[in-house]
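wait is this the right file?? whatever heres the structure
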């Protein structure tokens, strides 16, 4: 009996010897994995709290190689783009003030202002804009979609699935980046939407990290559920990670948010994690311009 116990103990020691380096290598690889952030803001208050140089320092220590930036007003986006044009993907916001979030879709003066701003020639997309099902027939939304078509731009929409359906009904060929995994961030529901729109729909995971880690009070499980894992594996080319700096405090806690992102990414197969972390965004935003 004692001999069997010694044999078992020896076996466990060998397993520890051989498995520990692999585990350490996996952890190190995850920490060193680049991140392409697909949803950030650098608005009025942010520009007062952080200089472009300080933003780049935040990116550098978190291995954020590139970032999609929009802001209210757009001055912050343009300042950051001028400072680091090789790292910033500028999107044109449709608001002049944050109060405009509620009713921009009813203000037809938005369209000529957007068209004028697009003449600067630096913007790669329009958004992030907030709009929900009750306003899906807005003529201003239709105008924004048509401008995106005309100029070959992407759209970043913060809204529910009805908005995504409406956009694609107007312009099946436009590319949409759906913010925050929509308003019903549930694996089965997102799967249905992705099945309805098998082309040109991409989804960012911003502000859903505590949900994915089960630390938002809705689950006792720490980490991705089997349903989330299956969704990310099945649609590994369609999701992209992001922090979403919706407030100055979000820039201050940027490092901890990235830590959460890396934690749930580490629970996916490494090739899938790479796609969500940076490869999908690189393909979408960089390769079209022939850049590495």
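ok assuming it is, sequence goes like this
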């Amino acid at each position: 009996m004692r001999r069997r116990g010694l044999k078992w103990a020896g076996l466990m020691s060998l397993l520890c010897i051989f498995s520990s380096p692999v585990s350490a290598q996996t952890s190190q690889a995850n920490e060193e994995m680049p991140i392409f952030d697909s949803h950030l803001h650098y608005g009025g208050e942010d520009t007062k709290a952080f200089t472009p140089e300080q933003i780049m320092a935040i990116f550098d220590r978190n291995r954020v190689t590139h970032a999609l930036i929009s802001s209210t007003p757009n001055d912050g986006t343009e300042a950051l783009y001028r400072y680091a044009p090789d790292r910033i993907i500028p999107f044109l916001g449709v608001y002049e003030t944050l109060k405009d979030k509620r009713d921009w879709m009813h203000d037809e003066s938005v369209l000529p202002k957007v068209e004028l701003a697009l003449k600067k020639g630096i913007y790669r997309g329009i958004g992030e804009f907030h709009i929900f099902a009750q306003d899906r027939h807005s003529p201003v939304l239709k105008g924004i979609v048509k401008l995106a078509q005309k100029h070959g731009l992407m759209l970043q929409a913060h809204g529910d699935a009805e908005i995504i359906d409406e956009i694609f009904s107007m312009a099946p060929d436009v590319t949409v980046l759906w913010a925050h995994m929509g308003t019903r961030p549930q694996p089965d529901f997102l799967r249905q939407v992705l099945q309805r729109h098998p082309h040109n729909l991409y989804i960012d995971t911003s502000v859903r990290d505590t949900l994915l880690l089960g630390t938002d009070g809705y689950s006792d499980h720490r980490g991705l559920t089997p349903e989330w894992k299956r969704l990310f594996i099945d649609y590994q080319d369609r999701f992209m990670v992001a922090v979403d700096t919706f407030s100055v405090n979000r820039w201050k806690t940027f490092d901890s948010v990235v830590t959460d992102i890396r934690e749930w990414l580490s629970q996916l197969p490494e090739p899938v994690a790479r796609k969500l972390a940076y490869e999908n965004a690189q393909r979408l935003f960089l390769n079209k311009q022939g850049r590495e």
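The mean pLDDT is 90. so i think its the right one actually
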